């Protein structure tokens, strides 16, 4: 059973199509990154899965239950984007309220709230009203709220926005702990460096459609940009490099190409030497997730 | 269960945001002014009351009744205003700010959230009315040992009117922004108010067209009719006959029927059902 399974989920607000047709499968226990430019439909997708927004068409299952199943929501945690709440509650009252809405008993809540406040480092502020909190502290209490029910599946919509490096490290550690416990995490983030560190798989979406779903390891390790500096490159030889890459750019004595696999490198070297090219340098360079993001999503920002 | 959690939250919000405190302090200020006014009016009017015991007692109780109902009319208005003010922003505001998102994602029905808020406001209004009506009635009782007739029926009708306006506000708040909600409620109150006047004049002058305007306005929003019925119930028949009765802006000439009370209860239930339904369907 997948933690999340969506089938052509679509949301249209009047003329405006927010999500065109989302088809995704997130397996249990993985950390799944949801990437895309602003306005790509990421938040609307999450809202559809959580029952905040009704899909125009399509279907989805969460933890094996169809969308809108109330019982399954007891096993789901959610940190909304730009998390806002009743700021006249104290940190402890706030967690108590949300715990009760999960249907948790007072006894269980009492010990659990103390643990969670400790986890997010807010124990000294437990009786302070939330309106006195900084943005980072609010994000932390929001995260504690998302973990109240020991969820099997957690949606984190921009969990590190507003956090300083210490807070970001904390979120990363929490995600790692959750994963070790077998919790499925659906992470929507702009901070690609975070995604690169925490996620198992990522989906790139644009205009509400999945462009590509890929394992992060193979994605980042596999795609390699190679820069070649050499004398004696003829257009025919440069064209011959096309057998390893579709993306060959020649600029005088320098050629840049992207290969999908490192094993292409020795073959390229042998090829060039066989053509009597004087090779001065053949430099592989791993693509960052940011490079890949731009490559897959484009530089237009989805506009 | 979630209904009570939300009701408690609504109550707590009124306390924390000092809504309850400010309503209480202003209420006390109103009661002090009212007591002073009541006392002065009695001083002014009673020396001219004829010495004969029976007619004196009648006039005295008539005056007490008039002043008590004048106070209750003000309280009635304040309760409507308070119910509308606290509930206008409740759904609209939480949708606008996004606080509603984490609530709705919990294993609760959206209807439970609306019912919970309604229950919380109903509790607040009850508390407010107990304090204010109790205060107004205490003045006449302490100064003169006077109690209006049919207290329970009258108070129940005033409470029903406050609940009605609060519920309609809550319904609007599930559809519109807080500002638009305020506009709609203000407009409805205006219709009820003017409609009530026109109907009274119509009845006094025996002008059927004017009475009909009042009836139509009571169908659009039956709040004012509830007040007029409450005032009628709490006025002794004798005072009605001799013409010293205070029944809202006008003397009650045309008395709202039982059917109008039933209509108001149905109106309230329908408004609540629409509010629940709109909120349940809405994208947040």
Detailed description of the structure:
The complex is a heterodimer of chains A (303) and B (284). Chain A is built from ten helices and 14 strands. The two termini of chain A are 36 Å apart. In chain A, strand 7 (153-157), helix 5 and strand 8 (184-188) form a beta-alpha-beta unit. The model of chain A has no long low-confidence stretch (mean pLDDT 87). In chain A, helix 2 crosses helix 3. Chain A is α/β, with parallel strands linked by helices and 303 residues long. Chain A folds into two domains: 2-216, Rossmann fold (3-Layer(aba) Sandwich); 224-286, Alpha-Beta Plaits. The longest helix of chain A has 16 residues, at 165-180. Chain B is mostly helical and 284 residues long. Chain B has one domain. Chain B has helices at 2-16, 19-45, 53-88, 90-97, 99-104, 110-144, 151-175, 178-205, 208-220, 223-233, 237-242, 258-281. Chain B is globular, with a radius of gyration of 21 Å. The interface between A and B is medium-sized, with 31 and 23 residues.
Any idea of the CATH class of the largest domain in chain A?
A: Alpha Beta
What count of helical segments of chain A does DSSP give?
A: 10
- Within CATH, the superfamily of the largest domain in chain A carries the name P-loop containing nucleotide triphosphate hydrolases
**CATH topology-level fold name of the largest domain in chain A:** Rossmann fold
**Bulk shape of chain B:** globular
Low-confidence stretches of chain B: none
For this entry, what is the oligomeric state of its chains?
heterodimer
Alpha-carbon Rg of chain B, integer: 21 Å
Largest sheet of chain B: none
What is the average of the pLDDT values of chain A?
A: 87
Binned strand content of chain A:
25-35%
Question: How many domains in all of chain B?
Answer: 1
Radius of gyration of chain A: 24 Å
């Amino acid at each position: 059973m997948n933690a999340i399974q969506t089938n052509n989920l679509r949301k249209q607000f009047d003329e405006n199509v927010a999500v065109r047709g989302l088809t995704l499968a997130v397996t249990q226990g993985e950390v799944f990154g949801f990437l895309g430019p602003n306005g790509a439909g990421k938040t609307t997708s999450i809202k559809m899965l959580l029952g905040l927004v009704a899909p125009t068409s399509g279907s989805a299952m969460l933890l094996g239950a169809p969308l809108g199943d109330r019982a399954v929501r007891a096993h789901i945690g959610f940190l909304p984007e730009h998390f806002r709440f009743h700021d006249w509650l104290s940190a402890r009252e706030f967690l108590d309220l949300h715990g009760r809405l999960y249907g948790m008993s007072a006894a269980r809540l009492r010990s659990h709230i103390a643990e969670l406040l400790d986890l997010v480092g807010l124990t000294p502020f437990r009786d302070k009203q939330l309106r006195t909190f900084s943005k980072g502290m609010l994000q932390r209490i929001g995260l504690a709220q998302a973990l109240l029910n020991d969820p099997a599946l957690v949606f984190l919509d921009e969990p590190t926005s507003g956090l300083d490096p210490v807070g970001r490290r904390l979120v990363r550690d929490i995600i790692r702990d959750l994963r070790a416990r077998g919790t499925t995490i659906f992470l929507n983030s702009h901070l690609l460096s975070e995604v690169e560190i925490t996620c198992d798989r990522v989906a790139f979406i644009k205009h509400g459609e999945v462009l590509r779903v890929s394992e992060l390891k193979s994605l980042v390790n596999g795609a390699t940009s190679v820069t070649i500096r050499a004398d004696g490159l003829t257009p025919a030889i440069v064209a011959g490099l096309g057998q390893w890459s579709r993306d060959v750019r020649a600029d005088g004595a320098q050629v840049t190409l992207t290969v999908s696999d490192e094993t292409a490198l020795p073959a390229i070297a042998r090829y060039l030497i066989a053509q009597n090219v004087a090779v001065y340098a053949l430099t592989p360079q791993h693509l960052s997730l940011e490079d890949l993001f731009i490559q897959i999503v484009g530089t237009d920002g989805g506009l | 269960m979630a209904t009570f959690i939300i009701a408690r939250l609504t109550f707590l919000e009124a306390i924390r945001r000092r809504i309850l405190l400010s309503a209480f302090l202003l209420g006390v200020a109103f009661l002090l002014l009212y007591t002073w006014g009541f006392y002065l009016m009695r001083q002014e009017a009673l020396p001219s009351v004829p010495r004969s015991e029976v007619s004196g007692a009648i006039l005295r109780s008539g005056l007490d009744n008039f002043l008590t109902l004048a106070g209750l009319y003000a309280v009635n208005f304040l309760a409507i205003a308070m119910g509308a003010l606290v509930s206008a922003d409740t759904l609209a505001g939480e949708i606008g700010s996004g606080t509603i998102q984490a609530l709705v994602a919990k294993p609760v029905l959206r209807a439970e959230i609306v019912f919970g808020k309604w229950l919380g406001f109903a509790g607040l209004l009850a508390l407010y009315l107990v304090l204010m009506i109790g205060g107004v009635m205490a003045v006449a009782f302490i100064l003169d040992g006077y109690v209006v007739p049919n207290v329970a029926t009258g108070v129940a009708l005033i409470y029903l009117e406050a609940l009605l306006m609060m519920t309609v506000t809550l319904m609007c708040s599930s559809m519109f922004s807080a500002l638009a909600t305020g506009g709609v409620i203000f407009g409805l109150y205006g219709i009820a108010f003017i409609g009530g006047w026109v109907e009274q004049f119509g009845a006094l002058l025996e002008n059927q067209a004017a009475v009909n305007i009042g009836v139509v306005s009571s169908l659009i929003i039956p709040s004012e009719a509830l007040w007029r019925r409450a005032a009628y119930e709490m006025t002794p028949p004798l005072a009605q006959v001799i013409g010293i009765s205070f029944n809202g802006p006008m003397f009650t000439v045309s008395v709202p029927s039982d059917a109008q009370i039933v209509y108001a209860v149905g109106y309230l239930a329908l408004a609540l059902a629409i509010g629940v339904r709109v909120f349940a369907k809405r994208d947040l």
